[in-house]
Recover the amino acids of this structure.
């Protein structure tokens, strides 16, 4: 394109652009470092500052890997669109309640499922060991703590991540054969997911407590609560959990650490059907009171709802979408849609947040649990703008909650059509984390979470925000470049 | 205070301020009209623009009344602080359910309470007439519509505003002798308030419908629902409604037209106690399903909760606090704390908002109902920032919802300690409307409301925002000046 330099009066404008540079006032566009702009401003030059950082913090190896992926034969954009469209179209429906042994794929009487990537007994943190001990006592596989520890250490039980069994578990995430589970179906793609029942706060198995009180509650859930909910659900019919989550996001929840609305919606949905079962009034009242007293009851529904949706996005060739994030209290791990079942791990972080009275950071176990499946699906921390009141639980200000959600749009590839945030003018939640964007921008996924005491048997000590380890994203990028990048494969 | 004009180098600065004005660059502060500032800006003068409008729109009579009040012997500020402190300290508690005839002060078998200021049958709008007809049929005082209309027109029944009987009613607000009512007590001051049960949406008495379906539902409420709730409440014990409203405001409600959280909280609170009554399961299930199907169930609880709190602020000598706002579909009326039971009225406005499919503004009755008691108490439209999702119901954008709440701080004298808005950094809701501030600023209280069809028997056609008539505030101000202003009394 040529530019006409003749002025309206017929004379010529400055013909030589280089000379023109010296004879006309400078207007400077400054990218990145402010020091250049500061110097020019001081000399009275007009400067437009553009915020810019080199990709991947200027790390040549990472930039090289990103470039190799770009020049590789795979159309990553198209693959990611396919993967995220599966998340966007997913419809999680609560279809039944069952016994883990009967319904969870690969479950045996000696299996102990746990949160996060694979881990051995030796490397487990305090609360996860506590939950394993509790699980073995609950199953009758051990009679005492010592017996349980011996059995766990001897290889007499099979440890396996929930995520390998279409399941998710909050905090320690321990699931054993007799435990009742919520059964979800992704109506769009037909796959299922599973999660135990939420036990409430305080001394509970998922925080590593295993006292008699904890085990009795688990037995009551198995013998009374779960059968009641199974029958009520049968009477009610399958429950569209996408709709419930969408409503909860308009009622100040984000589906991970603020679940007061979700729990309320579940209670009002089920109460009439629980009543119609013709069961003893006190038994039904106890079930309703239990749910009423525990606003996290809904967490064990939002998690499997997220799991069955994200699972459908796994295994898309050439996709850099993150389809798993999970922590076992020792390692934080992720899995990538285009890289199959391979985990990329780094050290689990320490949660920054608010502590319950009498506790401090010194008491905290590292980051633990599969509940970050909610963020992976585009809710939880990614939807914090919908839940400004959550800052009273995890720390920070309402403005921070808005800022976190806004920032997550920078590392995601789509926006939900169903999960919308009123205060952001009903914008859809940021959905589908692109590994490349995380590495390029250096923006890590925001995760809000509970904090477990580092010793087994104690329970919850606080809640806050946690950063995942950078290296697992970098390692995953290198692996992706090796698999799909230019010049990496024969 | 003298200003040292000696400069650091020992020479004198410009000694003559007038001469200085001409010799130094101008910096101009512009109050009000932008045209002056525009002219100066065009000449390169630095202008700081201050938004300013003359008080009371420059109306000399109103300014005179405001001045007379200021110069009068009464300390209005102190009186208002006393009045608003009664609102701030009020603790509304749901204590019982009763029959209107038995518990509502001044109720008789031939009394028909209605919303808004006093009105005769002749001046009643369509939906209010419809509700009166329905009330008379329900009480058996008439057998047909014609008979009811004849009775109403003949003076055979006593019409009276709910507000004269410590009561409030949404929309037409018709309450008759046999109707069950929620009984509230202001725990701090001991006064009580009353409200009927919410009937749901669609064809309902409060929107002027009176078909058999409407009357049958009212009878079911009287015979089944109310007795169940009365017994469940007795088992539960008095319910602190201030706490419930505070929670609902953190869950996207504002307590007037968005009550999904409030209704959910009530269901989860009562469900276990309803179950424990040992009643027939289907009967209890029907009660729970009715509440579940009607998110406005909570409106008839937030209204009397507001009423008993605001009533305690009435009758404070010298106070300009607005303690009643109410509409009967023909007139909008207010009452002032320092002016006793006197109503100041103006024509009820037309609601601007969103219409249900098939309806338009041509179908709308004027503004109607006592539900603006919520705004009078500092929630409802005044708390819209807590409920951005409400704009899908009443129109506008989430930004508008924030703006409305922010504007209401300009006409109120305090902020609630209990009702807090997360997105405004947990700021308390604007509470205690000062009549003087309304007139001075010209900012009218924001009211969001349902829209009734103008004909009796049809029901709800939409929802939106409505402006109260200016003249009732002006008339109240003149009356206040006459009672308390300088030189007005002997």
């Amino acid at each position: 394109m040529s530019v006409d330099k003749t002025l309206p009066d017929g004379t010529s404008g400055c013909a030589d652009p280089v000379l023109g540079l010296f004879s006309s006032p400078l207007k400077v566009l400054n990218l990145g470092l402010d020091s250049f702009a500061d110097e020019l401003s001081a000399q009275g030059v007009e400067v437009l500052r553009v915020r810019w950082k080199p990709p991947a913090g200027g790390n040549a190896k990472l930039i090289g890997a990103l470039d190799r992926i770009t020049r590789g034969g795979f159309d990553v954009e198209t693959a990611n669109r396919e993967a995220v469209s599966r998340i966007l179209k997913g419809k999680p429906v609560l279809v039944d309640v069952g016994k883990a042994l009967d319904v969870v794929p690969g479950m045996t009487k000696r299996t102990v499922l746990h949160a996060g990537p694979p881990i051995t007994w030796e490397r487990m943190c305090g609360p996860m060991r506590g939950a394993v001990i509790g699980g073995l006592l609950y199953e009758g596989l051990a009679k005492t703590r010592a017996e349980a520890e011996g059995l766990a250490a001897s290889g007499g039980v099979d440890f396996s991540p929930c995520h390998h069994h279409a399941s998710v578990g909050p905090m320690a995430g321990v699931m054993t054969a007799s435990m009742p589970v919520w059964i979800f179906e992704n109506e769009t793609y037909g796959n299922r997911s599973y999660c135990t029942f939420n036990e409430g706060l305080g001394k509970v198995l998922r925080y590593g407590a295993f006292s008699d009180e904890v085990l009795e509650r688990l037995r009551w859930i198995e013998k009374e609560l779960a059968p009641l909910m199974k029958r009520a659900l049968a009477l009610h019919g399958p429950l569209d959990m996408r709709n419930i989550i969408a409503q909860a996001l308009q009622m100040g929840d984000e589906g991970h650490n603020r679940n007061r609305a979700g729990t309320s919606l579940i209670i009002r949905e089920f109460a009439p059907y629980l009543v119609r079962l013709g069961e003893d009034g006190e038994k039904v009242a106890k079930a309703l009171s239990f749910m009423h007293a525990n606003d996290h009851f809904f967490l064990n529904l939002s998690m499997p709802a997220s799991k069955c949706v994200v699972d459908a996005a796994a295994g898309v060739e050439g996709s850099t979408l993150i389809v798993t994030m999970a922590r076992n209290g020792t390692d934080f791990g992720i899995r990538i849609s285009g890289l199959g079942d391979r985990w990329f791990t780094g050290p689990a972080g320490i949660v920054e947040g608010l502590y319950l009275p009498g506790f401090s950071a010194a008491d905290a176990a590292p980051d633990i649990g599969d509940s970050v499946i909610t963020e992976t699906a585009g809710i939880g921390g990614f939807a914090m703008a919908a839940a400004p009141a959550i800052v009273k639980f995890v720390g920070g200000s309402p403005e921070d909650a808005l800022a976190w959600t806004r920032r997550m749009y920078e590392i995601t590839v789509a926006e939900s059509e169903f999960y919308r945030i009123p205060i952001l003018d009903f914008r859809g939640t940021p959905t589908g984390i692109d590994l490349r964007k995380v590495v390029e921008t250096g923006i890590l996924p925001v995760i809000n979470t509970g904090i477990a005491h580092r010793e087994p048997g104690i329970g919850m000590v606080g809640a806050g925000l946690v950063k995942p380890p950078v290296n697992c994203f970098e390692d995953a990028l290198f692996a992706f470049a090796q698999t799909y990048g230019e010049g990496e494969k024969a």
Observations:
- The longest strand of chain A covers residues 412-421.
